[in-house]
């Protein structure tokens, strides 16, 4: 959909008839591109954005996580539209020149249309209908001063529109629903486990926050069955614990994710290294095994990652 922010009240004047026609054609290309992106077998794998989109769908199919697909889809739509414009218009139409991704320093409009004297007459932004109006957050004031400014809005990404391709990247809808539910179950179990460990660590102190970061780290080591190598202590744990308690006291919904973040930071910053492990509590080792089992229950056969 062609959504004007500048010049919409003048675009139907006779003097702008050709410009209006060109802008409508650009919008038609974007709508076509948004539809084409759902058909993976039609993509040009020689173009990076389209190849990345296809790869993102493949990863999503394996993990069940679709949260990152919207951005990849948007980049693919832009790239498909750009390739069509370059092929079919070759830089000009109706007495106007067309340039793509023009760098103006603080901003890069997707499509710039210039008149015969090389003056910018229209800036077009390709974007999802769900982000309508985001051009007002762009840095350059030229989004408000260029004679004609419009967004070419394509429908917001919808996972169910993905079509089964010859490459086998998309499973049947039943499989995608199964993966989504598996991911939700995995996330719920990880949240429950993380909260349990954090609460156990906090319960060891008469006050929530001892002065010694080493004391906090030592509690994590004993409760999780892992240790920081060479005496290294991760300085983020203590402030993250404070955020966790504050969020919980305020009944905020984010404290489970904060709990997961604390454990993730702990393990990824040394806690996974147990080559010099001392004797840990039996409960800590049991929780370590439990966490590995939760992750393993969701990991796919192609993954070699060890979450811990």
Which short descriptors sum up this protein?
10% strand, 6 strands, alpha+beta, 2 domains, 308 residues, six-stranded mixed beta sheet, disordered C terminus
What does this structure look like?
With 308 residues, this protein is of the alpha+beta class. The protein has nine helices and six strands; from the N terminus they run βαααββββαβααααα. It folds into two domains: 2-161, no CATH class; 173-296, no CATH class. A six-stranded mixed β-sheet has the order 1-6-5-4-3-2. α1 (17-36) packs across α3, α2 (48-63) runs antiparallel to α3 (69-89) and α5 runs antiparallel to α9. It is elongated, with a radius of gyration of 26 Å.
Count the E strands: 6
Continuous helix count: 9
Summing up helix and strand content along with how strands pair, one would put the structural category as alpha+beta
Number of domains: 2
- With strands numbered from the N-terminus, the spatial order across the biggest sheet is 1-6-5-4-3-2
In whole angstroms, how far apart are the ends? 48 Å
Helix fraction, binned, reads 40-55%
Radius of gyration: 26 Å
* Poorly predicted ranges: 164-177, 269-280, 298-308
Note the run of SSEs as H and E. Answer: EHHHEEEEHEHHHHH
Overall mean pLDDT: 76
Biggest pleated-sheet summary: 6 strands, mixed
Report the portion of residues in β strands.
5-15%
Dominant shape: elongated
């Amino acid at each position: 959909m062609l959504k004007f922010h500048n010049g919409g009240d003048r675009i139907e004047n006779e003097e702008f008839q050709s410009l209006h026609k060109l802008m409508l054609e650009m919008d038609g290309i974007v709508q076509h591109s948004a539809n084409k992106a759902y058909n993976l077998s039609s993509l040009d794998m020689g173009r990076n954005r389209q190849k990345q989109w296809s790869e993102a769908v493949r990863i999503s199919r394996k993990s069940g996580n679709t949260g990152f697909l919207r951005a990849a889809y948007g980049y693919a739509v832009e790239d498909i539209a750009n390739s069509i414009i370059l092929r079919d218009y070759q830089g000009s139409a109706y007495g106007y020149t067309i340039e793509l991704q023009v760098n103006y320093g603080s901003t890069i409009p997707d499509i710039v249309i210039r008149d015969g004297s090389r003056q910018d007459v229209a800036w077009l932004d390709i974007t999802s209908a769900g982000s309508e109006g985001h051009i007002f957050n762009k840095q350059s004031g030229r989004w408000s001063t260029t004679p004609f400014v419009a967004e070419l809005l394509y429908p917001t990404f919808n996972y169910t529109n993905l079509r089964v391709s010859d490459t086998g990247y998309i499973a049947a809808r039943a499989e995608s629903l199964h993966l989504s539910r598996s991911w939700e179950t995995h996330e719920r179990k990880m949240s429950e486990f993380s909260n349990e460990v954090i609460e156990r660590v906090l319960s060891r102190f008469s006050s929530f926050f001892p002065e010694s970061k080493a004391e906090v780290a030592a509690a994590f080591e004993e409760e999780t069955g892992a240790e920081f190598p060479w005496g290294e202590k991760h300085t983020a744990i203590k402030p993250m614990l404070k955020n966790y308690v504050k969020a919980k006291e305020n009944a905020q919904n984010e404290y489970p994710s904060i709990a997961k973040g604390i454990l993730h930071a702990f393990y990824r910053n040394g806690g996974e290294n147990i080559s010099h492990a001392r004797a840990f509590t039996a409960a800590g080792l049991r929780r370590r095994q439990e966490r590995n089992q939760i992750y393993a229950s969701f990991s796919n056969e192609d993954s070699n990652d060890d979450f811990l």
